[in-house]
């Protein structure tokens, strides 16, 4: 994927976000773009990072582990987990993420809590 293609698409998405914020009365700085990294190679993530993106989401524990390891040199990167998380993968995932979007069962919540992964969201 070419650098110009990624940059042009990011610019278009940010423009749409700006329009949506204006239409809804929200402040643009209160809305973040989370880039889902599924199927994208490290080189594409680097282009997005160079374009100013720092918030990435992955939906597979194994992919998260490999991509986070490749991008650990970039301190400003923040990872979220956005897919179904198996309880046995909790210990692997919490090493890399600041937020898990998909806590869908009590057993998973308990496993996260038992590992010390607690995140309080503003409502």
TrEMBL record:
SUPFAM superfamilies: PLP-binding barrel. InterPro entries: PLP-binding_barrel (IPR029066), PyrdxlP_homeostasis (IPR011078). Transmembrane segments: none annotated. Keywords: Pyridoxal phosphate. The keyword Transport does not apply. This is Pyridoxal phosphate homeostasis protein. It comes from Paenibacillus plantiphilus.
């Amino acid at each position: 994927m070419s650098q110009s293609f990624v940059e042009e698409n990011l610019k278009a998405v940010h423009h749409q976000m700006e329009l949506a914020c204006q239409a809804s009365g929200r402040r643009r700085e209160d809305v973040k773009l989370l880039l889902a990294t599924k199927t994208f190679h490290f080189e594409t993530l680097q282009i997005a990072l160079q374009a100013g993106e720092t918030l990435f989401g992955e939906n597979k524990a194994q992919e998260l582990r490999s991509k986070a390891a490749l991008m650990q040199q970039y301190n400003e990167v923040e990872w979220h987990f956005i897919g179904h998380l198996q309880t046995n993968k909790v210990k692997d995932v919490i090493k890399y993420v600041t937020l898990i979007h998909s806590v869908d069962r009590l057993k998973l919540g308990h496993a996260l809590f038992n590992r010390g992964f607690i995140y309080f969201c503003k409502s």
